[in-house]
Amino acid sequence: MLRKQSMFVALKHPFPFVSARACPRPVARALQCLGLCLGLTLAGHAASAASLTVLMGDDIAASSEFVQQLRADQEPGSRFELVRLSPGGTEPPLSADSASTAAGTEAERAANAGVRTRSLRTADAGLTMAVGPAAARAAVERPGQEPLVLAMLSRLDYEALKAGSPALRRGDRRVGVLLRDPAMADQLALINAVLPQKHRIGVVATPESEPLVRELQRAAQGANPAWDVRVEYAPDARSLAAALRVVVPQSDALMVLPDLIGDNQAATLSVLRAGAGAGLPVFGASEGLVRSGGLAAAVSTPSQLAQQARLLGQKVASASASASTAAGGSNGAPLVEAATPATVRVNATVARGLGLRLPEERELTERLAAPR
Fold first, then answer.
1. Which of 96, 162, 181, 302 is an S-S bond match for 66, by CB 3.0 to 4.6 Å?
2. Which residues contact 84 (CB under 8 A, 6 or more apart)?
3. CA distances from 140 to 44, 56, 94 (A)
């Protein structure tokens, strides 16, 4: 079953039409400039207030918080529809009561309080936002050319989706991708702010983590001064201890990647114990890591990601409109953004145990937000 809430409003053009021929040339030119500025303003408003369809493939707390923030930020006069996918990411069938529920009443529409159910295929044109991997898979395979934003994906989720979804590679529609984790350059910037005299980072990765390792190595080489990244691979859980024995003596700090190790509590705890035993700080990209004994992490909460996803949606919708009017109308490759690290979390107990005096979380957050 699908549930949605809708709002409709009629907008009247705020200015009457004025013919340039009836005006002197300077006045006409001024009117043309005014019209251009007004058009850009209204276009930007239209992009932000367009109809939004949200596909949700799970009920985990982070996804629910993300969707709640999207709904709270929806502009008056715009339409919001939440589509909950069935287990497996499939579209639920149209129910018998869909017609009567979808019809609703004018009072419900005005109050945005009616709950309606209908098939995903009948959704109006607008921006579609898929939340999580299951919803992203369903969204890219869904026919249509409306602009699409895929959110709450890890880098590895996106790489797997790109490899297994020909529809994403064809460029049939304009697609934006918001990764849930900050870029490696931002994570290195945090480590530099905490450990300014250290430049050796140790990482234990899995073979599937290669895209993350390459991003980390590029960011390390581009830093000033450059970082020395020591990487060991652990194909399975039994290999993790051996990989840590190699990488720990060669490192000033350890980083937990958002991969199969970072997503596994037991594996993450093994890295944290190895770091603690050697007196090395451990960094990552989640608050859970900091609570469990990591020193610091640059994170974006689901609510902050929802706000970034809305801005990305405006870019994608604008680019899609431009592509549709251009010759050929090619939508190009997906626009991929890493999460903006909106908050730094620090474990003060771990810092004291390592003998480190760190700046306040607010100061570290400001440092990451500063241009580099």
1. 302
2. 1, 2, 3, 56, 92
3. 25, 13, 21
- The pTM of this model reads 0.75
Pick the closest to residue 192 from 224, 160, 167, 168 (CA basis): 224
What is the Cα–Cα distance from 296 to 191, expressed in whole angstroms? Answer: 8
Task: Order the strands of the 253-255 sheet from edge to edge.
Answer: 228-233, 200-205, 253-255, 282-284, 296-299, 343-346
What is the distance between the alpha carbons of residues 304 and 312, in angstroms, rounded to a whole number?
13
Backbone angles phi, psi at 39, to 5 degrees: -65, -40
d(CA 162, CA 174): 14
Cα separation, 63 vs 222, whole angstroms? 34
- How far apart CA 261 and CA 272 sit, in angstroms, is 12
Task: Check if the beta carbon of residue 360 is closer than 8 Å to that of residue 303.
Answer: no
Strand order in the sheet with 175-182: 3-5, 80-84, 52-56, 127-131, 148-153, 175-182, 335-339
Query: What are the chain's domains?
Result: 3-7+47-180+303-339 (3.40.50), 184-299+341-369 (3.40.50.2300)
